[in-house]
Structure formats: C-alpha cells, structure tokens
Amino acid sequence: SEQVVPVSRTKLAISKSRGDVKEYLEDLKQEGDERPVEQWLFADWLRENKSAKLPAIPFLKKAKWNSGDNPVVVTAAIMMLGIVVASVSERVI
Length: 93
What we know:
The protein has about 90 residues and is an all-alpha fold. Helix content is about 60%, strand content about 0%. α1 (about 5-20) packs across α2 (about 20-30). It is elongated, with a radius of gyration of 19 Å. The N and C termini lie far apart (about 55 Å).
C-alpha cells in the first residue's frame, strides 16, 4: 500500500513543506543560475506565486486538471494535432 498514488502524493506534499524536498528546493533557489536545467524542471515548485500558472486550454474553465503537465491533456492535444495533420495532408495529396 506504500506505492498507491494518493499515499505517495501525500508523502511528497509533506516532504515539500518540511522534509528533504523542501531542503532540495531551498538549495536550488540559493544556487541561482548554476543549475538551469533543474530550475527549469522545478519551475512550478520554485515559483512564489502559485496562482500565476496559466491554463493549458485557455477556453476551458480554470481547474487543477487544466495544466500543461497533465498527461491526459497533453495526449489529447497530440491526438488532435495528428488528426488535423492527417486531414490536411489527405486534402492536399
């Protein structure tokens, strides 16, 4: 039961607020531009103003699931892009 997603998310949230992850993020903030790739990967966690993140699909309501790091949203976008490309290429050829 240690590998269940809700349990793991809870453990991560606790670690972000007062554990090893918090220490890691604080070190990453202090080091400035020395680790740009890590800062880019953890940009959402390092951002002070958490509400500044824009929705991935702007015409839908602002919700937790509407973000660019949601695999369902990303997969749906890739599928739609593939359908559009296939439709356009079929008409052209």
